[in-house]
């Protein structure tokens, strides 16, 4: 049985957006975690950089996900309430 994309298009698009947001958040956190891990290993510290960079990864991931949500919903700051030429 094949997946009928045209019939299930809204559902498939929503699933795609949710998956993208989750992977973006996880990628930011893991990337920063490994940077902190290797800095701790290189500088022989005990988890300081892992903690700092993991927190930065969570914050950076949240900001990126927020921006993606605003772009998808069309509520970005630049275009909200104005036309292309900047007039109200």
What this model shows, in words?
- With 88 residues, this protein is an all-alpha fold.
- It is 69% helix and 0% strand.
- Helix 1 (9-43) runs antiparallel to helix 2 (48-73).
- The longest helix is centred in the N-terminal third of the chain and has 35 residues, at 9-43.
- The model has no long low-confidence stretch (mean pLDDT 86).
Quick summary of this structure?
The protein is built from two helices and no strands.
Keywords for this structure?
69% helix, mainly alpha, elongated, 0% strand, 88 residues, 2 helices, single chain
- The span between the termini is 51 Å
Structural category: mainly alpha
Oligomeric assembly:
single chain
The helix/strand order is HH
Principal-axes geometry comes out as elongated
Tally of helical runs? 2
SSE blueprint:
Layout: H1 9-43, H2 48-73
């Amino acid at each position: 049985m094949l997946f009928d994309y045209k019939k299930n298009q809204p559902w498939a698009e929503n699933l795609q957006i949710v998956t993208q947001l989750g992977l973006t958040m996880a990628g930011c956190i893991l990337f920063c975690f490994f940077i902190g891990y290797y800095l701790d290993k290189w500088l022989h510290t005990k988890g300081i950089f892992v903690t700092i960079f993991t927190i930065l990864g969570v914050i950076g991931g949240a900001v990126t996900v927020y921006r993606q949500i605003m772009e998808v919903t069309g509520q970005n700051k630049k275009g909200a309430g104005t036309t292309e030429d900047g007039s109200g």
